[in-house]
Design goal:
Length: 500
Amino acid sequence: MAEHIPAEKLAETGKAEYTKLEGLLKNGPLANKDRMAIPQQIMPAGEPKVRARQMTEVALGYTKEQAIVEANRCLQCKNEPCVKGCPVNVHIPQFIAQVAKGEFKAAADIIKETNLLPAICGRVCPQEKQCQGQCTVGKVYKSAEKAVSIGRLERFVADYERNNNLTTMPAVAASTGKKVAVIGSGPAGLTVAADCRRAGHDVTVFEAFHKAGGVMVYGIPEFRLPKSIVQNEVENLKKMGVNFEMNFLVGRTSTVQQILTEKGFDAAFVGTGAGLPKFFGIPGENYIGVFSANEYLTRANLMKAYDAEKADTPFYNAKTVVVCGGGNVAMDAARMALRLGAEKVYVVYRRTRTEMPARAEEVEHAEEEGVEFRFLENPVEIIGNEETGTVTGLKALSYELGEPDASGRRSPVPVAGSEHEIPCDAVIVALGNNSNPLIPKTTPEIKTDPKGHIQVDEKQETSMTKVWAGGDIVLGAATVILAMGEGRKAAASINEYLAG
């Protein structure tokens, strides 16, 4: 675990590097060897012991000087491998070139040609597996973590535009008289809403919850993605003329068929996500104190369980919490448990740190805040007090790694005779989610695969006429940017269909 460096010190270092850079630029354009010699700028973050008990955002963002210095690390590769790694094909070298010159608004405009949610993507995208995973600088250093910090630059640009009131609304074409229904207000849905509205269609978003944003609101914590940023993006869509109907559960309030026929919509997009939690199927999962990460985070994020005065739901008071899983959601749940008052939080994962699917930054932040990792372990039973029905611990096995499985990761193999107990008073299961089943169940015309994912063609069209789908309802639990990529494809297809 790297030593925490105070934000003030990082800002000073950034200024010093910026001054040095100015001196180099006086001699003309930088050569690639000069760019490779520029040190990567570290993202300032709050002090771990303080932030671990607060809901304020952990990553504080680059200063102007840091952003310009980091942008000058980009080699401006002609073949643009980073763009190929981005699901929505942001023009990365071009926007970074503008940041390098201090032209931050111009950089924002370039990003928004393909991505209308840069402040969100800059914070939560797994860049090390996507754009930064393809970066030439990272490949030279043989580490995506040493690549140009594309996500941090994207975040800086978006925040600069918003904080300086420079946001401009995309142009909306003349009204076509066509109506598009968007079911679900997560990243896929918001992307479809924006692109279809820009084409001149009348767009209405139907959302089951009382707040728009989908997983970005109920799933990702405030300390990683402030809700004000999501709300800002929703407000921008409203300014474009997108309508929102809240507390509207499609499949109960109205079916998809009724939206198309009775409400007179010409096309519908289904982006209801993956909100059906997976469990182990082991004894004891019915004890009080066992939560899916989905429920735990929704209570905290959407219902503000962390704020006793404003909470819409009680929170479960636990002192020792075990989180089972190794993804970003597991990290979010573990860090949230600390903020809800847990004295000890363990993450139990059946492989090693190397195989964890969570973003490296999220793992580091969790570790800095005091979360303890128990690798090569997995529960076989949750144990509890039979009289009170509450959790008292879990039984686990130790594992060792065998041959790689279909995912390319080495398979965990249980060690004989290794059963042991981990005392705790709450267990959070973070094994991922299945697609929400309500719409497929109430719309037999829409075909699904054996896992319940809606089946679509290359244009995101479903088996039902006038209906498209995308995001986690198609992919299973994936990422914000992958959902947005599907949303863009669907919107393009819808616009083509309505223009025909």
